[in-house]
């Protein structure tokens, strides 16, 4: 059964706002300037995005809270390579102008596909499932 787009967006918000903002906020609160806090926060968050689903068998905190997890096309736990490819593919969403178009295309594809895969899932051979 495919996951709802709204659930995936909420999981993303939980991770981005909850985890990333918490990391940046901690560094600002201990007296680091905002540029440093954003850079180190981005580095730590990138490590989180790659290592956490490998260590915790497909879960990010946001996906766990929403009852979802990342699996391979064969329903196995994702390997480090799967997650690295998946996250690197998401970099295309940050390209000015093109990125927003690709996000919209990815969401459209996700809504039309029976398995609910986004562009980065198709490329990485992963999918997000309800658990």
The major β-sheet equals:
2 strands, antiparallel
Strand-residue proportion: 5-15%
How many distinct helices? Answer: 6
Oligomer: single chain
Helix/sheet category? mainly alpha
Number of strands: 2
Distance between the termini: 10 Å
Query: What sort of overall outline do the alpha carbons produce when their principal axes are compared?
Result: globular
Helix content: 55-70%
* Number of individual domains: 1
- SSE string: HHHEHHHE
Q: Would you identify the regions where 5 or more consecutive residues have pLDDT less than 50?
A: none
Could you tell me the mean pLDDT?
Answer: 94
* CA radius of gyration: 15 Å
Strand order of the largest sheet: 1-2
Membrane topology: Multi-pass membrane protein
Domain RDD: 5-124
Main location: membrane
Keywords: Cell membrane, Membrane, Transmembrane, Transmembrane helix
Description of the molecule:
This protein has 131 residues and is mainly α. It has one domain. Helix content is 63%, strand content 8%. It has six helices and two strands, in the order αααβαααβ. Helix 1 packs across helix 2 and helix 2 crosses helix 4. It starts with a helix and ends with a strand. The relative contact order is 0.16. The mean pLDDT is 94.
Structural topology:
Layout: H1 5-29, H2 34-55, H3 61-65, E1 68-72, H4 80-89, H5 98-112, H6 119-124, E2 126-130
Antiparallel strand pairs: 1-2
Keywords for this structure?
single chain, 131 residues, mainly alpha, two-stranded antiparallel sheet, 6 helices, 2 strands, globular, transmembrane helix, RDD family protein
């Amino acid at each position: 059964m495919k996951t709802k787009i709204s659930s995936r967006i909420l999981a993303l918000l939980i991770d981005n706002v909850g985890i990333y903002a918490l990391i940046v906020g901690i560094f600002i609160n201990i007296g680091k300037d905002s540029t440093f806090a954003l850079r180190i926060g981005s580095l730590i968050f990138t490590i989180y995005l790659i290592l956490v689903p490998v260590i915790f068998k497909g879960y990010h905190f946001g996906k766990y809270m929403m009852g979802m997890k990342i699996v391979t096309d064969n329903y196995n736990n994702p390997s480090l390579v799967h997650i690295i490819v998946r996250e690197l593919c998401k970099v295309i969403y940050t390209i000015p102008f093109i990125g927003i178009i690709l996000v919209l295309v990815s969401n459209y594809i996700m809504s039309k596909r029976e398995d609910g895969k986004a562009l980065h899932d198709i490329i990485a051979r992963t999918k997000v499932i309800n658990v």
